[in-house]
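Kindly review both lines to help learners:
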Amino acid sequence: MPGVVILSRVIDIIERLYEGKIEVKGMPAVKFLAPVRAEKEVVLSLLPVAPDLLRFECRMEDLMVSTGSIELAVFGH
C-alpha cells in the first residue's frame, strides 16, 4: 500500500474524530518504516502533543509501519 494512501486514511480518521473542527495544516515529520500489505489490518494510535499537534503511529500486527506528526488548525476555540 503506498504511503500516500496510509496518510490519507490517517487524515480521514483525524477529521472524523474532531468532527470537522480541525484542518490538517501539515505533516512536519513522517517516516515509513515497513511496507503495508492491503490485506493486513493497520492499527492507528494518536497522541495529542499540543492543542495543534498530534503524533501518530501505524502498526501492522507487532510491526511499526509508519510514524509522524500532524499540525492542525483548530476551529471553535
